[in-house]
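> @MW can you paste both from yesterday?
MW: sure, first one:
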Amino acid sequence: MTDLLDPSRARRLKARTHDAHARLDARIMAGRPFEDRERYARFLTVQRAFHRDIDTLYSDPRLVALLPGLPERRRLKAIEQDLAISASRFPGTRRRPSSRPPTSIFPPPWVGSMSRKGRTSARRC
């Protein structure tokens, strides 16, 4: 799979956000989200809320023009499937179209596409 960004831009973005991502990862892992199914379901519920809010961005024509392959990085359906498998309930889908310019909405899809850790780690539960 090719990067959404040219390699130099991706490296700069990763370097600039490393500390924030490390803190977020530590905070998430402190909650032991993969310790049991109940904790994992709570983790998925948070992931679903985040991905639900950014889901429409993955099909935003302005972003797709800038980031070919962005629609294929959607995670909401996979998270919802994981929630269904874990027999958790979740509220109805709420979609909000974005009127913000692509430059202000770029980070959430990038972060969203990088949030695969939970699904990979969950296979251990």
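MW: second:
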Amino acid sequence: MNHQFIKIKTVSPILEVANPQFNVKEMIKHLKNSDADIIAFPELSLTSASCKDLFFHQELISDAYHALEWLLENNPYSGFVVLGMPVLFNQQLINAALLIHQDELLGVVPKKQLSKTDKRWFSDPTMYIDEYQYIEILGDYIPFGELSFVNQNASFSIGFSHQERHQTDVSIVIGALANVHQQDEQISALTKAKSLNDLQSTVFVSAGANESSSDGAYIAHHMVYQYGQPLVSHSVLSLDPVEQVAWVDLGYIRHLKRNHQQPSEVLDALEIPEFQMTLVPYQTFIDPLPFVPKNQVEANRIFLTQVYALAKRLKHIQATKIVIGISGGVDSTLALLVSMKAFEILNLNRKDIHAYTLPGLHTSKHTKNNAIGLIKSLGVSFKELDLAKHIKDHLSLIGHDGVTEDVAYENSQARMRTNVLMNIANMVQALFVGTGDMSESALGWSTYNGDQMSMYNPNAGVPKTTIRYILKHFSGDEVMKTFIDSILETPITPELKSNQQTESSIGKYEINDFILYRFIICGDTKERIEAMLPSLFNLSETEAKAYLDQFTTRFYQSQFKRQASPDGPKVFANGLKANADFLMNADVKR
């Protein structure tokens, strides 16, 4: 099963100027043995775009039609071909994009927005589009105009302009451009903008340097953007053929259209055959760590989003002090660093950051030493409050034997920590900063009214894999980095019972974060995600299903916790804030 992915290949082939017979045979080389669903060639790729006044000559036009006929008779490819060529309409020459499927020409789309140079050879087709719906080519009447195409799997359009609006899942734009300074950035920006504006995947391909160099060198642009995200962004000056491949996620596009209330049905679209639906090699193009920043710029932007959100809250409530619990884990480490940067922005004294370690019944020396070392290296106020006796007294008070490591045993410790920190914050007139992350929120890996609660949580929109990346690449003095490195190497644990390791209970955060991303941002079904997991994470089908079942069960069961969570900044396109990002009743059962 394909699970709603299609493979698109863009090609800037070797060509000879004004030699359609040569050019079509070069195209055939790229069509042979291809498993792509769509292959797109540049504007006027059959003749070349730089024929100049030869476009006026009947011999060139006849050669182009013969080359098209030869392609239809000898096409070895079972998918869809997009190419460009000049066509005659009422003895006027039209610059056109053609869609071909095997031996059939399915549609002809004219170029409407002509440059001054284009207008020397090509006619403005606007006057014909409303009056004529068909064009005669090779003895057949072919649909003509601003066309869209649809089958059971997808809808797509072909054309020449980034400015044309389409509601299709995919738009394919073809061009031929002599290179000028910073053109690649401009084309990239246009392709990205169209994909965002039209909620789609936008493809752009242009001719390469084998076009005539009399007036410049043509550059092969290959751009594929999926709702603003680059799947391919490649511009090159080359005399060799250029190919790029992108896998377009139709399920994600349809999810976006539903979320933005844009109809996915394209009116008056031409019905076309189905795609061949090849096996999808997920491991070659799906990012297994989608929440992990791709560079330090992205990481800094996330970190500063947290910082300024916290700074704004402190400024709003006129708080000059923070209370925070430091466990020796990654979440509280990042929250402390965020707090320090917020204080720096507000010109507040870092000694008014009150950092506490709160060892309980199962706190290890290793995590406690990491917490203390980190706090002292940062120069904030520090105090250790040993809660072991208070927890035992509390368990005795409620009639617990203090030995059985059940839910009450664990949650009593988590709630004791929160209770102490909340009360200290009230006592010193400080903001109690929470540390729980978005991964824990999704899985419900927190104690209700325990670590789930605070007065503000800068980590609320940040998944575990993001936090680990930010800490790994955080700049600071060697002493601080030593403790951060040790914290990163320590297995994740809340230390609420004997030998407790989080990932032994709920699975690896890398896998859970991937599921979270595909679920809330891409809108994937369990079946789609389950199909991706084995190749991306080396899981068996049974293991993949177990991960999905556990994630979805915990996600739905934990909504009541998210509905009672404190404020915190949204960082990614979709978050889990129950009153803003992911609205869901707490009694959903799926």
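> thanks! The chain has a mean pLDDT of 94.
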